[in-house]
Design goal:
The protein is an all-alpha fold and about 240 residues long. Helix content is about 80%, strand content about 0%. Helix 3 packs antiparallel against helix 4 and helix 5 runs parallel beside helix 9.
């Protein structure tokens, strides 16, 4: 965990100051012990303050703020489901022929675990009245998605085309001078919801498939590829 500068958080500094005064005057600790101790306490308290600040939604658009809070909740639920799935897969996929599938599940779940932080980053990016998405930024995202779609096929191409359609709508809003931020968050919410659906589908198939059948293992592997593709699209959307 990265250290946090406690000077950015007055309550942490106040707590460190109280500890320092109490240590020197009341307990009569030597300064070379009291000062580092107070600094450590202030730094330790600053970490949860920073985490709380980074998760706060301070946006001028109430509807957008509600949408972001909803996506945050969905992403946390998805992380919980992914944790359960990985534990279940670890118990079921034990033979050498199943190790590749288990590795694919682990990687897909690791990508899902990153989702809440990505949602927080997008929320920070969209805060404030001056954070309206520019047509140039949306156009760049759209071009990147369309270029990737040209080199894709199957389900991945379908996912990218859906994301492309969403970005085209967001771009039209921005070009009309409207707030495209909510549409951008709706696009993210759609990806999270679709990820949850594929995750549930995978869990159902994992419980009912013949895991000694290579064809069925490959079908399950395809579902993990879908999950990874959706997380790639999340990256394209928030970058």
């Amino acid at each position: 965990m990265k250290l946090v500068n406690p000077l950015h958080f007055p309550l942490a500094v106040l707590a460190g100051g109280i500890v320092l005064v109490a240590g020197v005057r009341l307990i009569q600790l030597p300064s070379y012990i009291a000062i580092p101790g107070a600094a450590a306490i202030a730094t330790g308290l600053a970490i949860p303050f920073k985490q709380k600040a980074s998760q706060a939604v301070n946006i001028d658009n109430p509807a957008l703020a509600r949408e972001i809070r909803s996506v945050k909740q969905q992403s946390q639920l998805l992380v919980t489901k992914a944790t359960e799935l990985r534990t279940e897969a670890q118990q079921i996929l034990t033979s050498t022929t199943q190790l590749e599938l288990f590795a694919a599940i682990e990687y897909a779940c690791d990508r899902i675990f990153e989702l809440p932080d990505k949602v927080n980053r997008l929320a920070q990016k969209l805060q404030g009245a001056d954070s309206l998405l520019s047509p140039e930024e949306l156009s760049r995202q759209l071009n990147e998605v369309q270029a990737k779609a040209k080199n894709s096929s199957g389900v991945a191409k379908q996912q990218l085309n859906q994301l492309s359609n969403s970005l085209e709508n967001n771009l039209r809003l921005a070009q009309q001078g409207q707030d495209a931020r909510q549409a951008q968050v709706v696009s993210l919410a759609t990806l999270v919801t679709e990820s949850a659906g594929v995750l549930q589908q995978f869990q159902n198939r994992l419980r009912t498939s013949d895991l000694n059948n290579s064809a069925e293992l490959n079908e399950l592997k395809t579902l993990t590829d879908e999950l990874k593709g959706m997380q790639d699209n999340v990256d394209l959307l928030i970058t």
